[in-house]
Amino acid sequence: MTTSHTSDTNGAAAPEGQDESVRAELSRLRESIDNIDAAVVHMLAERFKCTQQVGHLKANHHLPPADPAREARQIARLRELAENARLDPAFAEKLLNFIIAEVIRHHETIAKSS
Ligand SMILES: C=C(O[C@@H]1C=C(C(=O)O)C=C[C@H]1O)C(=O)O
Question: Does the keyword Lyase apply (predicted)?
Answer without folding.
Answer: no
